[in-house]
Amino acid sequence: MYNPFRKTYGTAELRQFKFLSRVKFFEQLRYSEMIRFLPAIHKRKFQKDEVVFFRKDPSQALYILEKGKVRLTIDIKGQFETILELHAGSPFGENSLLKGCKRIYTSIVDSEDAEIWVIPHFAIQEIFENHPKIQAKMLNSLAEFYNDNNARLFSSYQSSYGFFNLGQMFQ
Q: pTM for the full model?
């Protein structure tokens, strides 16, 4: 049934919605919910080997890689070890969906350049405060993300024959 009062969206908005709907933390949102993020999103261009953020930095934004590659690394005894390489459509800095967190890894651009959508933490928290259904959907996606990571961690531990002390994770 046609509703003449239903909000319509322009081509640029529809393109942004299509992109966001493929991103883990936005996949459960309707367009009418995603639109609340659009004014807060800004694009940044980064060059090869540029650091997006360092481990232990305050979690001030959620990032979504639009173009290029980004490496997530951890530093071990002064050396950076890659834990994951991200491609277009990948979100990172996910703990910015939570209050008062610090980064747990360093993110470094690994392609000649990268285009990254940035959503500031304060804007996310403002949307969450005013729209608890959006918050519930996104935090549910975050819980699924962390559950999947835990499953991979435990699988990795099992296949490594106890090379590291998994019990340290729970201390």
A: 0.88
